[in-house]
């Protein structure tokens, strides 16, 4: 497992990050522990979660994933780089969501309690909040860093202009700045290459991508003429993932790729992950699972090296997809 530097910081993270949004809903605690055990045995020391997990999101289950991760981390906390997020609705009140100073400061304390730790390595905002000035959010995050409750801060689902504005604000006000961004990225979704990637490269921002396998769509286990397989992201998260990938063009693309790699004796799952990892701007790819066996199989892509023809085949898929897609960035 390769280790990379996160942006311009001195923090080192593994090239694969364990995603945990399935813990507490699709996976019970025993299964979740088995997945984390497998990740650790495979050399993964980077774990990503969020206060609102598991998915599907509800006020009844919010926080359950952090609690599970916290119990597993007991006695080995310092061996792992731990990332979590805030911003989503965590209670019934109007101030129980968003990126106001009030909510951000309350959210970090709640996450620390659930995770059973006194610090977060990477504290991220889950998405932009149009109702809160970015300087208010960054000032609150700066307070968290200065207090030692978080070592670094990052953002997720920010567009390039939003990240640029945040970086300018941090520089102008001398506040802690976002050192990472967490966008969606895979063979079927590459919008971030146009503006976000160049910005991150120029400014030394770490890129931690999610959905490298398109929520499991790139495993080729789904069929266009059948409902989503049970206990998969498409069955559990429903419309969110169906809107992203469940269309004829994506099914056709996956079938072409599956046939191409199968003829070469290779797995599309492995090839899809390998392609993401070989992109120079990507620091780490978040990989989730619903079982230890599934994670173990997916990680076969870490060792796969794509030759030039295979890389070109993967890259071409994006340009063959229709461009009449919804341009909005859907949150996971």
Question: Explain this structure to me?
Answer:
It is a single chain. The protein is an alpha/beta fold. It has a single domain, classed as Alpha-Beta Barrel (TIM Barrel), CATH 3.20.20.100. The chain contains twelve helices and ten strands. The longest helix has 16 residues. The C terminus is likely disordered.
The neighbouring-strand order within the major sheet is 3-4-5-6-7-8-9-10
- For the termini, the CA-CA separation is 26 Å
Uncertain regions: pLDDT < 50 for 5+ in a row? Answer: 324-331
Query: DSSP helix count?
Result: 12
Structural class: alpha/beta
Total individual domains: 1
Name the CATH architecture: Alpha-Beta Barrel
Assigned CATH superfamily: NADP-dependent oxidoreductase domain
Q: Tell me the fraction of residues in β-strands, as a range.
A: 5-15%
**CATH fold group:** TIM Barrel
Roughly how many Å is the radius of gyration? 19 Å
Helical content (DSSP H or I, runs of 4+): 25-40%
Question: Would you kindly provide a brief summary of this structure?
Answer:
By secondary structure, the protein is of the alpha/beta class.
Quick tags:
332 residues, two-stranded antiparallel sheet, 12 helices
Task: List the topology elements.
Blueprint: E1 3-5, E2 12-14, E3 16-19, H1 29-41, E4 46-48, H2 64-73, E5 81-86, H3 101-115, E6 120-125, H4 134-147, E7 150-156, H5 160-173, E8 178-182, H6 196-203, E9 206-209, H7 233-236, H8 239-245, H9 248-263, H10 268-277, E10 284-287, H11 292-298, H12 308-320
Parallel strand pairs: 3-4, 3-10, 4-5, 5-6, 6-7, 7-8, 8-9, 9-10
Antiparallel strand pairs: 1-2
């Amino acid at each position: 497992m390769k280790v990379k530097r996160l942006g311009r910081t001195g923090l080192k993270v593994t090239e694969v990050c364990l995603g945990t949004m399935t813990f507490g809903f699709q996976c019970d605690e025993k299964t979740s522990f088995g997945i984390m055990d497998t990740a650790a045995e495979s050399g993964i020391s980077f774990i990503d979660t969020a206060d609102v997990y598991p998915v599907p999101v509800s006020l009844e289950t919010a926080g359950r994933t952090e609690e599970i991760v916290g119990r597993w981390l007991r006695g080995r906390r310092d061996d792992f780089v731990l990332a979590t997020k805030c911003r989503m609705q965590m209670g019934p009140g109007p101030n129980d969501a968003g990126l106001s100073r009030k909510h951000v400061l309350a959210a970090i304390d709640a996450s620390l309690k659930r995770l059973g730790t006194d610090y977060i390595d990477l504290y991220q905002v889950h998405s932009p909040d149009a109702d809160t000035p970015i300087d208010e959010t960054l000032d609150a995050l700066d307070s968290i860093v200065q207090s030692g409750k978080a070592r670094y801060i990052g953002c997720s689902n920010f567009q390039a202009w939003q990240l640029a504005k945040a970086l300018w604000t941090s520089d102008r006000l001398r506040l802690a700045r976002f050192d990472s961004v967490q966008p969606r990225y895979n063979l079927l979704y590459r919008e971030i290459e146009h503006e976000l990637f160049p910005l991150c490269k120029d400014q030394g921002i770490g890129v931690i991508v999610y959905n490298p396998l398109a929520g499991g769509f790139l495993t080729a286990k789904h069929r266009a003429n059948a409902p989503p397989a049970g206990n998969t992201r498409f069955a559990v998260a429903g419309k969110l993932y169906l809107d992203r990938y469940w269309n004829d063009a994506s099914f056709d693309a996956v079938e072409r790729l599956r046939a191409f790699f199968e003829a070469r004796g290779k797995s599309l799952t492995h090839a899809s992950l390998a392609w993401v990892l070989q992109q120079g701007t990507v620091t780490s790819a978040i990989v989730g699972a619903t079982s230890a066996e599934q994670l173990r199989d997916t990680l076969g892509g870490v060792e796969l090296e794509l030759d030039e023809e295979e890389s070109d085949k993967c890259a071409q898929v994006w340009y063959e997809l229709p461009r009449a897609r919804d341009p909005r960035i859907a949150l996971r």
